[in-house]
Amino acid sequence: MEIAVLGGGNGSTAAAVDLTEQGHNIRFWRRNSAAQAALQNKDNTIYLRDFAGTRPIQIDVVTADIKEALEGAQLIVCPTPATAQEDIARAMAPHLSGGQVVFLPPGSFGGWVMGDIVRKIGNLANVSWVEAGTLPYLTRLHGADTIAITTRATRLPSGVYPLRNADYAHNILAQAYPSVEPAGDALSGALMNAGPIIHPPLITMNAGPIEHFDHWDIHNEGTQPSIRRVTTRLDGERIAVREALGYGAPHFPLADHYDNDADEWMYGNAAHEKLTDSGDWRENLVLTEHRYMREDIAVGLALLVSIADWAGVPTPTATGLLALGSAICDDDFRQSGRTLENLGVAGLGASQFQARLRAGLGEGV
Predict the structure, then answer these.
(1) With 90 as the cut, is the pLDDT of residue 106 above it?
(2) How far, in whole angstroms, is CA 320 from its chain's centroid?
(3) Which side of the chain, N or C, has fewer Cβ within a 10 Å radius?
(4) For residue 364, is pLDDT > 70?
(5) Looking at domain 2-190, which CATH architecture does it have?
């Protein structure tokens, strides 16, 4: 299949390499033309390191020209941070065509955000936006030319916008990611996102060690029983919001990620042990800049709290963590973050919102 992969971070590099090895034709784009030129000078080759060893993978096309990347692509994989979605949507808008599927793993309701930007720029093509509950990979870059994949997702609950395209979008996605599971509309997909659940307690409750030590593994030493209890309470609030909106099980409770005897979570059993054993998450974290703060709190958690307020569901843990993250960054993410108010939809009734999630906002057919 012809696939465009957008972005140059951990998830995007892993996708470009992994999908190439699966036999797909990949066009790998990012805005950093110098980095792409450096990769071209290495014959488009990145080393993949996983349980099978280390081997070179040569990507078909490496480019800083987004038109070249998108033209003719059936699937567009965009595992970039949510903070980059608006700029990428503006760059994509002139080049998207009907029938293309854009995969945002995870999305933080990015399908709605990016689709709205593309429409307002004037492209009414019938594009499908799909957002998953997590990245397809636990992965980290080792320098500029090696990507380490600790494990791959075995279950990827994903919502589609507009929902009327769900069957088509899932058929396309399954050719690249057979682990994708239908999870309803884009709002349901956004409420599957594990990042705003697992990361806010870790980054706020480990703020002292993060600022004190040069390197700190928030998934190992930083994951203590007290923090896990907060995570479980926060996840309960997420599930309560899903249920209040009529979304049914499975809700993929995060507790299953830590319990190898529970139902299989998104990365399968023993994923947490693989993550901590790898050592790849013992990192230098800049507390106020890290994506766990700027994406998972300012975008994902702000979105969750605003949805809960709209639905009338109490979320004291989520609201408290949002306030803590705001204080740490000297901001007010409830006002400045990604919220239903800032997206202009908080005034919609439930039936109006569901109709738009199902049909889209003026896309062509």
Answers:
(1) yes
(2) 23
(3) C
(4) no
(5) 3-Layer(aba) Sandwich (3.40)
Q: Which two tokens stand for residue 113?
A: 């955000």
From the list 267, 264, 273, 57, the residue with the least C-alpha distance to 148 is 57
Region 262-266: mean pLDDT is: 86
Enumerate the H helices of the chain as residue ranges: 10-21, 33-40, 66-70, 85-92, 110-121, 166-174, 186-190, 195-205, 207-212, 225-244, 255-258, 271-278, 291-294, 302-311, 316-328, 333-336, 350-359
DSSP result, 312-334: T---HHHHHHHHHHHHHTTS-HH
Mean pLDDT across 54-81: 97
Structure tokens at 130: 């799909």
How far is it, in rounded angstroms, from Cα 160 to Cα 330?
A: 35
Q: What is the pTM of this model?
A: 0.94
* DSSP-assigned states of every residue in 144-202: SSEEEEEEE-S-EEEEEESGGGHHHHHHHHHTT-TTEEEEEEHHHHHTT-SHHHHHHHH
Summarize the confidence of residues 342-355 as an average pLDDT.
95
* Three-state SS at 121: helix
Task: Report the C-alpha gap between 182 and 168 in whole angstroms.
Answer: 11
Residue 218: pLDDT band (50, 70, 90) is confident
N- to C-terminal Cα separation, the chain: 23
Domain ranges of the chain: 2-190, 195-359
- How are beta strands 137-141 and 146-152 bridged, if at all? antiparallel
Q: What is the DSSP-derived secondary structure letter of residue 103?
A: E
Query: Contact at 8 Å (CB) between 257 and 156?
Result: no
Bond prior to 94 in cis (omega within 30° of 0): no
Say if CB 4 and CB 60 are below 8 A apart: no
Structure tokens at 327: 């204080």
- Each residue of 13-23: pLDDT tens digit? 999 999 999 99
